[in-house]
Amino acid sequence: MSKKVWLGLALAFPIITLSSWTWYVDEGIKNAPEMTIRAEGYDPRSLISGHYLYLRLNWQDTDCTQFDDDLCHPNRFESVYKYYIPEDVAPQLDKAVRKKNVKVDLVFAYPENKNPYLKRMLINGQPWKEWLNGQKK
Fold it and tell me: Do 26 and 53 share a domain, yes or no?
């Protein structure tokens, strides 16, 4: 084979491998069962790292019947998660997650034998963007 063919194969191999691996991981997350865990906010912004919410999982207010054995598994989750948010809505979400009458839930992909993956944040049962738009009206 010529050098051009070998060069083409050498360049294509890592691209195909990384693409395949990315697809495999993405499919695993999409097809994993989802678990919704109650969370509460604290220390929501950092001047160094940008705008995000620090959210601590609240297992006392979480419905554990969504797990196969009807038991919560806090050891499979981290105790605190960062949820990045756009700068323009940071002040509103900062105030929202600190209120006691606002329920914040984190939805995770929960693949078997792998770490849970944070997919989205809900406020009072709605995606946070929809909830925020409803507050502006």
Answer: no
pTM: 0.76
**How many other C-beta atoms lie within 10 A of the C-beta of residue 8?**
12
pLDDT at 49 exceeding the cut of 70: no
Q: Does residue 84 contact residue 94 with C-beta atoms inside 8 Å?
A: no
Same domain, 111 and 60: yes
Q: Which domain holds residue 46?
A: 33-136
- Torsion region of 16: left, alpha or beta (phi above 0 gives left; psi -120 to 50 gives alpha): alpha
Q: Which residue has the tokens 């998660």?
A: 81
Residue type at 20? S
**Residue 44 pLDDT more than 50?**
no
Distances (CA, A) of 85 to 15, 54, 76, 88, 126: 31, 11, 25, 9, 16
- Would you state the pLDDT for residue 117? 92
Whether residue 68 is found in the same domain as residue 6? no
Indicate whether 26 and 49 sit together in one domain.
no
